[in-house]
Amino acid sequence: MSKVCELTGKRPMSGHYVSHSNRKTKRKFVPNLKKKKFYIPELDEWVELKISVAALRTINKKGIYAYLKELSKKGEIKLN
To answer: Where are the alpha helices (DSSP H) in 1-80?
Structure first.
């Protein structure tokens, strides 16, 4: 299961744990992803997406169809 948001494209980043003595050890920052089903009344269909919680908050604010239209205008996704 890949850890990539289907709408925003967020993916894991690498970085370091930094100790008190300033030693650095590799670590991974993974996005906060959730699987969520959405009903889109304009298209009359259900879609299941694996999205980041940041994208979920934007969907709650703007609505799923408006957010998908905005992403399709930018060319990030293709909307039917």
So the answer is: 53-62, 64-74
